[in-house]
């Protein structure tokens, strides 16, 4: 009679120390994943914020340039660009809201309230903020015929006060300086034609 010996297979379980080591490793991996996700999300938010700020500055510069490039020179019994460091008003053939090609009175304004500098555009009864800068100061400047920037225009009031060569907005924010420079493309001094003079349309 054969005796069959039965082999007893014992299954070895994890010890308490091994379980603790596994849990610590898993916790470290999860912590690293969460931190990495948080860092990535933070970087993404900063990139989006920087992009939005860049887009706003581009639009502000385009609008500022578009409206001031096509200014109307002063005619007798009329007015042209009048400005100082905080605001300027002029007639433009390229208003932002009105019909293109039609002489329209526009105004750009800088206001500094509660540590925030705002650039506003005014046309007819509409006034809207184009750009905002935190903890910044800004000024409008005008380029004369001697290529010198000044903060008041015109220098002297006359029947034919010329337009400046260029207009710029200088904004100092933090350690950076932003320059929105617009070269005036229209005639600096109006020339009244004989027909306009005869029919009193000067």
Could you characterize the architecture of this molecule?
The protein is of the alpha+beta class and 202 residues long. The chain has a domain at 56-194. 29% of the residues lie in helices and 30% in strands. The protein is built from two helices and nine strands. The protein has helices spanning 16-69, 194-198; strands at residues 82-83, 87-92, 104-113, 116-123, 126-134, 136-143, 149-150, 166-173, 176-183. The strands form two sheets. A five-stranded antiparallel sheet has the order 1-2-3-4-5, with helices on one face. Strands 7-6-8-9 form a four-stranded antiparallel sheet, covered by helices on one side. A hairpin with a 2-residue loop joins strand 8 and strand 9 (176-183). The longest helix has 54 residues, at 16-69. The protein is rod-shaped and about 105 Å long.
């Amino acid at each position: 009679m054969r005796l069959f010996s039965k082999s007893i297979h014992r299954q070895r379980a994890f010890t308490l120390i091994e379980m603790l080591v596994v849990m610590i490793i898993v916790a470290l991996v999860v912590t690293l994943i969460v931190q990495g996700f948080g860092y990535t999300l933070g970087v993404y938010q900063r990139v989006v914020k920087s992009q939005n700020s860049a887009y706003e500055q581009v639009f502000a510069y385009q609008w500022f340039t578009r409206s001031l490039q096509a200014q109307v020179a002063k005619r007798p019994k009329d007015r042209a660009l009048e400005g100082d460091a905080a605001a300027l008003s002029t007639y433009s053939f390229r208003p932002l809201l009105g019909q293109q090609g039609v002489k329209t009175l526009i105004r750009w304004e800088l206001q500094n309230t509660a540590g925030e500098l705002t650039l506003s555009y005014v046309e007819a009864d509409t006034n809207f903020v184009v750009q905002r800068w935190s903890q910044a100061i800004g000024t409008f400047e005008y380029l004369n015929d001697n290529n010198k920037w000044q903060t008041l225009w015109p220098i002297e009031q006359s029947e034919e006060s010329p337009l400046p060569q260029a207009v710029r907005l200088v904004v100092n924010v933090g350690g950076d300086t932003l320059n929105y420079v617009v070269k005036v493309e229209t005639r600096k001094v109006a020339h009244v034609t004989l027909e306009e003079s005869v029919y009193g349309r000067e």
